[in-house]
Amino acid sequence: MSGPYPDDLRAAVDAYLTALRFPARAPAVGGLEEAMRYSLLAGGKRIRPVLALATARALGLDQRAAMPLAAAIELIHTYSLIHDDLPAMDDDDLRRGRPTCHVAFGEDVAILAGDALYAEAFKHLLTAGLAAGVPAENLLVAAAELADATGVDGMVGGQFLDVTADKALAAAESGAGDPVGFDAAASPADDVAPGPETPLPAAAPGSGGPAGPTVAVPVAPVVTAEDLRVLHELKTGRLIGASVGCVLAIAGVDDDRAAALRGFAADLGVLFQVVDDILDVTGTDLDLGKPQGSDERHGKRTYVTEYGLDGARSMATELHDAASTALRSAVPSTGAEDLHTLTAFIHTRTN
Fold first, then answer.
1. CA 323 – CA 347 distance, rounded (Å)
2. Handedness of CA 315, 320, 325, 330 (dihedral sign)
């Protein structure tokens, strides 16, 4: 790491996560919990839950009320890492300095571990949040925001843009052109349930179904700087934003402070991704805890490929300054020390 960090908040998050268990009525499901905890307790900076707790502290919200949310956010983040590392996605074998979940437990178990972490996140937020005294109405608003931030118009939507951009790039490089996609403008008559005269599309060889062509998903390359920003606002920025926004919901804060803090979180999310792209070029496997140069190997368009290393660094400085300004307008400096520390850390981090 680089620079100061709210270590007391990270220690509180780590202790809380360590105490979490995911019991099942069937003892044989214990192997799934093992895979979940293997990835959840692999360490890391815990930036998102620490951001949530730092926001709660700045708003004067008791940490015990915010901790179930902070834990839920980290469960979701861990699920996203497990799925990102899969061979069908980024195909990485190392995460946080040790074998990724699918390497340690197999792809099938890793997929299920990610699925389970996502479900358990919402269960924990709602049940533990109620037990901590958070009003049910506030919890429901927070849960809805968290779901939105991680669904089609959030993290998963961003992941879709990422993987389909990779496919568009591969198609362009191979000269194959765009794959045939679904017709989004198909008439209702074309959208009918399969029957005797409307067979399902045949499965590809080796997929477990009949041999034959598959229906391809439409793909679109990341062409402009705006495309790149939208991708990362969804894939990375929405969950970071929810780490602030969901705390506002739990605390019942919906005033000028909320607008300024949401602006701060939006800039912080983009800053995190810009620095991530820089570190993918300048970092080492040891520092990053994962393979360096993963973006380059996959031919991904990043802030470094778009603006150059110096341009990306300048952008990071501008985003840091904008986030800091928004934060100062939202919360007096005496109440937001941890948020300022975290903002500076994200700007200067080395892993």
1. 11
2. positive
By CB atoms closer than 10 A (0-12, 13-18, 19+), residue 40 is buried
| Whole-number Å distance between alpha carbons of 346 and 240 | 12
User: Are residues 154 and 238 in contact, defined by beta-carbon separation less than 8 angstroms?
Assistant: yes
Kind plus residue range of the DSSP H or E element containing 99: strand 98-99
Q: Give the 3-state secondary structure of residue 198.
A: strand
48-81: b (≥16 Cβ within 10 Å) or e:
bbbbbbbbbbbbebeeebbbbbbbbbbbbbbbbb
Q: Assess contact for 92 and 300: CB atoms under 8 A.
A: no
Contact 97, 289 (CB under 8 A): yes
Query: Of 228, 195, 194, 244, whose CA–CA distance to 57 is shortest?
Result: 244
Lowest-confidence segment of 88-92, 198-202, 239-243 by average pLDDT: 198-202
For residue 99, the tally of other CB atoms under 10 A from its CB is: 15
Q: Specify the fold of 7-180+220-348.
A: Farnesyl Diphosphate Synthase (1.10.600)
Report which residue type is found at 104: A
Determine the Cα–Cα distance for residues 302 and 309; give it in Å rounded to an integer.
10
- Inter-residue contact 8 to 43 (CB < 8 Å): no
> How many other β-carbons are positioned within 10 Å of the β-carbon of residue 308?
11
What is the sign of the dihedral through the CA atoms of 96, 102, 103 and 105?
positive
Phi, psi of 160 (to 5 degrees): -60, -45
Query: Which tokens sit at 329?
Result: 């307008």
For residue 120, give the nearest of 153, 71, 188, 60 by alpha carbon.
71
What is the residue extent of each domain of the chain? 7-180+220-348
Between CA 119 and CA 138 the distance in angstroms is: 19
Sign of the CA dihedral with 218 first, then 228, 107, and 13 last = negative
Phi/psi of residue 61, nearest 5 degrees: -85, 135
Q: What is the pLDDT of residue 207?
A: 44
Task: Report residue 8 as tokens.
Answer: 């007391």
Query: Could you tell me which residues are beta bridge partners of residue 99?
Result: 94
172-217, pLDDT tens digit by residue? 666 655 544 444 344 444 444 444 444 545 544 444 444 445 556 6
